[in-house]
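Before going further, learn to read the protein records used in this course. The integers have meaning only within a learned vocabulary of local backbone shapes. To see the layout at work, look at the sequence and tokens printed below.
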Amino acid sequence: MMETLINLDSYDTYKTVMEEIMKTLHKSEQKQLMGIECNVIVSAKNEIRKLITSSNYDISEVVKKIIKKNWESERTQYLISILESNKNHILYSIILYQNSVYNDTITNHNWYLKLVLGTSDLKVLRYPLLQLEFSSVNASGLETQRVYDLTKDSLSKLIKVVENCIDTK
């Protein structure tokens, strides 16, 4: 299906579609873009992913395979330049995708230490609270954010569980 994109009438449309493909290489949902059907874009993404994986994730090998295809030279050069300029993003998205196939993968985390001065039932005054914030992504590219509030006791239990996991390795 890459041939369909290579043979688009407008070079600007081709550039826009290729940029979008590189940004969303592993996202499963696809909307119609610039009048091009979703199945054409999804097939092009699959072809690019297949080229990358069959080249053992080496972008220079991907470039060699693209050159051998004898596609229109200006568009081939643009495809090569966008692959090389987005190499880090492409490899990062591949790693996230591979790691997220079976479970969500944490992409970012943050923590906040808070001091609660009181609760609505006034049972406890002034107690520390740790808030953990995790951003994760699944295999389809859907990003979620989770926030956990931990008291001192629950934090101690979490630390013990993590230490036990490390000790068993």
The beta strands are 105-116, 127-137, 143-150. The radius of gyration is 23 Å. Helices lie at 2-6, 11-23, 38-54, 59-68, 73-85, 87-99, 152-167. The first strand starts at residue 105 and ends at 116.
